[in-house]
Structure formats: C-alpha cells, structure tokens
Amino acid sequence: MTEELRTIPCASCGCLDNEVFKIPYAFFRHMDFEIVKRGGTIFQCSSCQLITNQMTDEEITSNEKLFQDKEYLKSPLIEHRVYNSDTDSLESRSFLQSEIIKKMVPHDKPAVLDIGCFKGDLLRDLGRCYESADLHGFDINEEFRAYFPADEGVHFRSGDLSDINRQFNLVILSASIMYIKDIAYLMKQIRRLLLPDGVIFINAVDISQNPYAILLGDQFYHYTPTIMKNLLSFHGFSFDIFKCDLFPKEFLGFAVNDPDASLRPMENDDTLSQCVKMINEKAMTISKLAEKYSDFGVLGTTSAAAFVESVAQSNVKFFVDENPKRVGLTFHGQDVLDPSTLSHEDIVVIPYGESGTLIKERFSQKYKGQFVCL
Q: How far is the C-alpha of 207 from the C-alpha of 228, rounded, in Å?
C-alpha cells in the first residue's frame, strides 16, 4: 500500500511522487470530533505539496452521507464563535469574516457565491455589510434550503456547480475547500464562475498553527498558506494572506486571476513532518500527565481536546469551553463546563502550544482552577 501511495497522482497538479506518513493515533470527524478510525495514512505531493488524507471507498461514501444527512444540520459543535480581544467577548466567525471581506472587497453591489454555505450565516452578515448585494449559497446538502426563506433575499443552490450559469464578483470558500475531493474540478468551476476582475475569499485551518488538524479523518486535504498558494498558482490564481489575529489556528486570504501565476516555481513545505513529530511528542507528554494526575479536564471541544482524551482516556473527567452554546453538552462522553464554574482544585489542560500561554494567563486572571499548558 505504501508503494502504491507514493505514485498516486496528486488531485491538484497530477504529480506522481508522494511522501507517505503512517499515523498511529485516533482520527476524528469535524462534526462532533468523535473517533472515526484508529490509525491512518497521509501523503504529500512532492511538487505542489498538497497533503492528502488517504480514505477507503467506504470512508468516502460515509463522508458523503454525513454531509447530506439531516443530523449534520443539528450539530452545535459546527457553529463557531471567536474570542475578540478588542471587545473581550465571543463573536460569530461569520460576522468577523464579513467585516474583513467588506474591507478587502469594496464593491457597491457585489454578486456573491458561497460554496459550502451551510446555513447561510456569512451571506446574511455580508448582506448587512453591503447596501445591495446579490447573495447566493451553494451546498451539497439540500436540507439547508429550509434555512433560506424566499422573502429573505439570500438564494440557495444545490446539485452541481456546473448547473450555475452566471458569474460573480466574489466566490467564498470558508472552511469548505478541505472537504471537496475533486480539487481540480473545483478550480475549473471557480474559474468559470468568477468574473475576470473577481475575488476568491478562502478561510481554512492552518496545520502549521493547529497540528492536531491532520487527525481530522473526514477532510480530504490539509493546508498551510504555502500549500494554498501553490495550489492556486498551479490553477492560475495569485493568493495573498490577510494577516489577522482573530483566527490564530486558521489562515484567511484573497485570490485573483493571474495569468503568470502558473509559471512561478512551487514552494516547499515541510509542515506535515513537523506536525507528525509534534503529535508524537504531545502523546508522550499526555501519557506522563495521566500518570501524574488521576483526573483532569481539557480546554476546548475540537480536535486538540479530542486528541488529549484519546490518549489519556479515563483520566479526562470533563471539558471546558467559553462558548455558551457548547456549555451543558457532552463531548467524548464527558460534561462540557463553563470555566466560571471551576474550583481552585480543578486541573485543566490547555493543549494549544505557544498560544496556550496567553490563554493560561487570561484564564488564571479570570477563573479559578489550575491550568497546565501542553
């Protein structure tokens, strides 16, 4: 199998040379971060550097069913809120994204297509930013149509992108590009759908800032800013990062048509090997923490927290989250607590590397508890 993976054509550039990584840990799905398998394989294109999560036909079919299932709409863990240090409050990611887009795309009446629109929150926030925008959302899950009432002025499309016969000033890929298997087809359709002077907005998890994300088993691909730049260059777009502290584990950027982009050399990216090394080290540290503390909690309800629990298992007794929509739920079978309910004796692991230091400082000032950075 390893030798076969070395010569599988890259889904973006077609290169037949890959580096293969065997991962011995649990893999999770993004809907609720439940374990989908234990152990998996990831490979990286030696040319454009695209990182691919190897999936069986059964896993691919399961993914397709998940995204088209009614239960997918109901998952509270998909609705993200972001801590804004300027306001010392949690705000919806769609609101913050819309403010950035309005700043970078100062169009009076933009025609907008959001690919992977979910319930349309970003489109509605853009509708508040622009005085007059023509807003369209596309998703493979027909069930989302119920969230787009006809009198609201936000249009919903499903089926296939090839069915859309018009062009747009702005095409959005917000936390969706990693779930689209045929990346070459996607780029072809976006080129057709985008006006010559149009803009693509992309927001994706940055594995260089969130290494645990390589354990998301329902993602076809994993990205860094460099990999995204390579991918878009190959397909004739130039890509610029929008520097922003609001999304520390992700990257945001804007792409435009550029006939010279495909002539530029690809940049190397060794982030995947660094991620694998880091996760191996974290697994050892978690095992030592489990020996030191008989029970503790974990901050967060995403892949990092799920990974800690998958290693420490029964030592994890609760999770902590500042998002009020997640408090009171369960995560990996344990209660999700509001940090304000912690006692001085509670030990909480913060599994976020360097950014965890700032979180620890803020939590130590604001809440009770003993906070341990991982």
A: 12
CATH of domain 73-263: 3.40.50.150
- State which CATH number among 2.120.10, 3.30.70, 2.40.128, 2.20.25 fits the domain covering 2-71: 2.20.25
Q: Which CATH architecture has domain 293-373?
A: 3-Layer(aba) Sandwich (3.40)
Ranges of each domain in the chain = 2-71, 73-263, 293-373
pLDDT digits (tens, 9 = 90+) for 97-140: 999 999 999 998 999 999 999 999 999 999 999 989 999 999 98
| 336-356 pLDDT tens trace | 999 999 999 999 999 998 889
| The pLDDT value given to residue 6 | 77
Fold agreement between 2-71 and 293-373: no
**Strands 237-242 and 81-84: what pairing?**
unpaired
With a cut of 60, say whether residue 77 has pLDDT above it. no
3-state secondary structure the chain: CHHHHHCCCCCCCCCCCEEEEEEEEEEECCCCCCEEEEEEEEEEECCCCCEEECCCHHHHHHHHHHHCCHHHHHCHHHCCEEEECCCCEEEEHHHHHHHHHHHHCCCCCCEEEEECCCCCHHHHHHHHHCCCCEEEEECCCHHHHHHCCHHHCEEEECCCHHHCCCCEEEEEEECCHHHCCCHHHHHHHHHHHEEEEEEEEEEEEECCCCHHHHHECCCCEEECHHHHHHHHHHCCEEEEEECCCCCCCEEEEEEEECCCHHHCCCCCCCHHHHHHHHHHHHHHHHHHHHHHCCCEEEECCCHHHHHHHHHHHHHEEEEECCCCCCCCCEECCEEEECHHHCCCCCEEEECCCCHHHHHHHHHHHHCCCEEEEC
Of the candidates 215, 217, 131, 235, the one whose C-alpha atom is nearest the C-alpha of residue 173 is 235
Q: What is the pLDDT of residues 9-19, one digit of tens each?
A: 999 999 999 99
Characterise 10 by phi-psi region: left (phi > 0), alpha (psi -120 to 50), beta (else): beta
* Sheet of 18-28, strand order: 18-28, 35-45, 51-53, 221-222
Residue 85 pLDDT > 70: no
